[in-house]
Amino acid sequence: xxxxxKMTWKRAALLLKEGALGVIPTDTLYGICASALNKKAxxxxxxxxxxxxxxxxxxxxxxxxxxxxxxxxxxxxxxxILEKIWPGRISVILxxxxxxxxxRLPKNRELLKIVEISGPLIAPSANWEGSKPxxxxxxxxxxxxxxxxxxxxxxxxNKASTLIDLTQKTKRIKILRIGADYNKIKKIFDNIN
Length: 193
Hints:
alpha/beta, DHBP synthase, nine-stranded mixed β-sheet, 6 helices, 9 strands, globular
């Protein structure tokens, strides 16, 4: 795609659906995104990020229904918590086929429209492993060059999501990383635990 072509959210969504990689603003940081259902695209993201294969990434979803694409069935306690914190900038680790995966249902309307069309997206921060996340498209281009497309609309908090673990059998919320929307989880954390 030439720089003169105008990238719309719909075009970005269709490119991602077809297996392309893109740097787009999530509701937290710029992410290097690819279809979470396309192994080849996922492998390319790991290669570009210089990240070890198998190291987990957050998956953006557009609705609770998307969880079933990964074989995840929420119990009533997990569903109750997720209904209170999603949509938002809180990523949640859930049990999946004897392992775990992390998901986030973003609140940003344009990002949700992209994910509704593209399907679930892996969205690790736009940087090489161990480097600082890109705060703008120019910084992302220094990492990835022309290996991805760039979509630059949206509002960033430039703060990683809060990360919680809902895999405990004791109905406890385990906070793994304090980040964006932490106060939101803290309020319900105080009421549940």
